[in-house]
Amino acid sequence: MLKIKYNEKYQLFYLKKAIGELLNENNKNNIKSIKIDHYNGCNYINNIKIPIIFPLYILNYINSLIKEKDIDYNFTGTLTPKRKWLQKYYKNSVINYSNYGRDLKKKYEIDKDYYNTISRSKFTLTPTGDCPWSYRFFEAIMCLSIPILENNSNDIYMKDYFCFFDKDEHIYDKDKAIENYNKFIKSKHFIKNIHELENLFKIPLNNMRILKENEWLANKSHWKLSGNKLISTSKTFLKKNDLHSSKLDDKLKIKIPLNKEVLYIKEFNKNYYLVSHPF
To answer: Cystine design at 176: which of 14, 162, 242, 251 (Cβ 3.0–4.6 Å)?
Structure first.
């Protein structure tokens, strides 16, 4: 049921990945059913209704990117008759009409250029498609980019966040972008914030930590604790999550030499320390 099939919707893929980030020996048999309602932008785990879900590895990757804004607008996606209003945004903008997400060989990879462009953009054009919501809306928020919606948009999530319509005057407000981000990471779009699922996963979900830009995980078996510092006892990696380093994108890990010192923050779990180190 939770096995990834590389021909399914992002919605189901993200739901499976988010669940997989929380599974362990104590709870792996608790997930009896999962279902998506694509049009209405919601999911079900054991018949418990939850909204669109993002796995933490996506947020942690985006958090590692620089957010300096040197692009006004961006859009990557398909151009349909309903989206012709996008065509006027071309000055100091990055507009790519792409079918990347439809390419099964690339669909589930982290699109580095895509997220880097959004992170550099003051505004992201976030039209709805066949459904009254879009992932692009939330991706913009994670990248501190303000969403721009079509006039009379029916986006079901827009009321919860600061955004503009096409007809509005667009003035970038960093404080509003940060406010959007802080609200989003505390929302039920991350399983860790859904208290109704705590018994299912048998862990205090709200204690899960979203790593900041300079925060990393250090495998205890490769480090020696000395006061407020850790010293590496072998060549190793600092990582953004506890997957094996061979499975992580380069943006989610740092190669560390022998005898490297990093700042110790706290114990993360039985296998990892939480440390501070610039990327």
So the answer is: 162
